[in-house]
Amino acid sequence: MTAFKIENETIADGFYACPAVYEDAESITGLLVRTAEWLRDRGSNQWSGLLKGQDIHDITGSIEKGHVFVFKKDEELAAVVMLLPAPSEWDRTLWGDDGHEESIYLHRLAVSRRFAGQGLGARVLQWAETGIHFPEKTRIRLDCVADSDALHSFYRRMGYEFMGADASGYHLFEKEITAE
Predict the structure, then answer these.
(1) C-alpha dist (Å) from residue 141 to 17, 91, 163
(2) Residue 43 near residue 50 (C-beta atoms within 8 A)
(3) What residues does the N-acetyltransferase domain cover?
(4) Which pLDDT tens digit goes with each residue over 21-72?
(5) Is 109 helix (H, G, I), strand (E, B) or coil?
(6) DSSP string across 57-75
(7) Which residues have a Cβ under 8 Å from the Cβ of 127 and sit 6 or more positions away?
(8) How far is CA 159 from CA 129, 144, 153, in A?
(9) Whole-angstrom Cα distance, residue 162 to residue 124?
């Protein structure tokens, strides 16, 4: 199990954060697949593997390791995020060999369409920065498809620095956070 401390369980009016449990796996997978369908319908291939039954981030295994966090309102799943305290093989491929010891890797941030348009994605991202503490971690890293200008703008507005693009079509972003 990963060492972390949730500093703030409440992220917005009635929304709260908690580690995902095994019983959440089906609803999380459903949310991720619905998000992938929504992205596909808008011309994006981001997360398209989920539509083929591929789960490169192993949601169930990641839940068991304590890497997945859910955001609920009145017990309804509103959003999800995966925070890896060590790089996956995917992350090592994208980021190379440097900076892993002090980095958290953010994956699979998704908001239920029912709660879209309320700033929940930004609040989840802010929570990942300040609402949870991973000892000795001083930055968050994330990647996204290169062809999503809206997503790139969102991350920049949230204070993430564009670190470059890799040859396979992903843009890399990171943000310094406070470690104690």
Answers:
(1) 20, 9, 10
(2) no
(3) 31-180
(4) 999 999 999 999 999 999 999 888 888 889 998 888 899 999 999 999 999 9
(5) strand
(6) T-HHHHHHTT-EEEEEETT
(7) 8, 11, 17, 71
(8) 11, 15, 10
(9) 20
Tell me the residue type at 71: F
What is the pLDDT, as a whole number, of residue 2?
62
pTM, two decimals, is: 0.94
Q: Which CATH architecture has domain 5-135?
A: 3-Layer(aba) Sandwich (3.40)
**Exposure of 122 by Cβ count < 10 A (0-12 exposed, 13-18 middle, 19+ buried)?**
middle
The DSSP 8-state label assigned to residue 151 in this structure reads H
pLDDT above 90: residue 180: no
